C-alpha cells in the first residue's frame, strides 16, 4: 500500500490527532512538518496545523552547535542512548 493511499484512507484520524495540538520532535520544523504538508497535499486535503512546535534541534543547537543534528552526540551526553 502506498504512503499516499495510507494517508488518504486515514486522513481524518490523522488530521484530528494533529490539528490544534503542540507538536514536538527533533528537526520537526524542517522535516516532519514538511512531510505532513506534502502528504496531505498529495490527497488534496488541508494539512493539520499545530498550535505550537517544540523542535529539539533548535534547543540542542544552543548547547551542541552543529553536532545537534546528530542525535548520538546529545543523547550520549545525557545518557539517553546507552548500550550495555
Fold blueprint:
Elements: H1 3-18, E1 22-25, H2 28-42, E2 52-55, H3 56-64, H4 72-77
Parallel strand pairs: 1-2
Organism: Brassica cretica (Mustard)
Domain Exonuclease: 8-71
Protein name: Exonuclease domain-containing protein
User: How would you describe the oligomerization state of the chains in this entry?
Assistant: single chain
Number of strands: 2
Provide the succession of SSEs. HEHEHH
Average of pLDDT: 79
End-to-end span in angstroms? Answer: 37 Å
Biggest beta-sheet profile: 2 strands, parallel
Low-confidence stretches: 73-84
Strand content: 5-15%
Order the strands across the largest sheet as they lie in space: 1-2
What is the structural class? mainly alpha
- The residue fraction in helices comes out at 40-55%
InterPro entries: Ribonucl_H (IPR013520), RNaseH-like_sf (IPR012337), RNaseH_sf (IPR036397)
GO molecular function: 3'-5' exonuclease activity; nucleic acid binding
Pfam family, one: RNase_T
Protein name: Exonuclease domain-containing protein
